[in-house]
Amino acid sequence: MENQRALKTPYYLCEEELLERNLKILDDVQQRSGAKIILALKGFAMWSTFDLVSKYLKGCTASGLYEARLAREEFCKFNPNAEVHTYSPAFKEDEIEEIASISDHIVFNSPAQLHRYAQRVKEINPKIEISLRVNPEVSSSPVDIYNPCGLYSRLGTTLENFDASVLEYLDGINFHALCEQGVDELEEVLTAFEKSFAPYFKNLKYINFGGGHHITKKGYDVEKIIKLIISFRKKYGVEIYLEPGEAIGWEIGFLVATVLDVFENGMNIAILDTSAEAHMPDTLAMPYRAEVRGAGKAGEKKYTYRLGGNTCLAGDIMGDYSFDSPLKVEERVIFEDQIHYTFVKNTTFNGIKLPSLAIKCSDGSVELVKEFGYEDYRNRLS
User: Fold this and answer.
1) Which partner from 48, 202, 247, 338 sits 20 to 30 angstroms from 286, CA to CA?
2) Hey, what domains does the chain have and what are their CATH numbers?
3) pLDDT tens digits for 130-148?
């Protein structure tokens, strides 16, 4: 066990107690609605926590072979009955057999891919269940980059392109239209989804509502989603799956960095040993402003600084923040809520060191579970 102050920066710290708080909220939804909630590994894949996560969630959803292997090898060892669902915009010929052998559900993105592989995956794994991802063509996703139902989307089959000949293979249908949104947005999507695809629900075992359900965020209407799920299940006689990623990792930890240099160029600038580009990618892609512990907006407190990353990318900037006291070299800066959609997207751009991964256990002790080094950078290259 480590003392948190002794950990070298940068590092992410996941708080076990807060993770379990989210899991209990999700499990309450499962228990009262009858839905199954599975972990979307694309949002949170800290497998050192899977012993805890597997106590509450029913399995994992993967976006390809490697995530499917991680689910099978690291999640299912704690819960052998856990389900592995695997989806890809397009499966590869040289991977489909292994994917079929380790998945309980496989989700095709188009009728063409389903017709190409459905019979083959059934031969490899007779128990595998087959689904098609559809596009309800309705979404209020906050930005286009995260809108799977936007114009010319490559994700999911629209009603116009739906091929009824796939029905003989289907056990389920998937849709995904939300991005960190509430139940009112889900209700809007469901209305469009039912209008377009309800004629094809007969004989299906399940409907997967996808991810983006911000169930663990304060103010989310948990009672409404429970009622909505119960109503849908009764109406169509199907099981319901949800596969959030951010709801599991929401507000369960932070990223700690150290100030390396402070100087002035029209305003005060502080260089940290972390990077928005490499370590907090969604702050640039979404974009959104990461909260810094103890800081305010520019000009709100006495001392304002532009916080920059330690790469040569000109735009590697976290933002402008103000502090009660001047920032000093070797001072630590904490970026809040940096567990979901962060280290799963990390890069070694510029050879910058990947942040370590640590867990604050429920007894208050801190455990360093992974530290990265030069070999991690080198081994990605040739």
Assistant:
1) 48
2) 4-11+252-378 (2.40.37.10), 16-249 (3.20.20.10)
3) 999 999 999 777 778 888 9
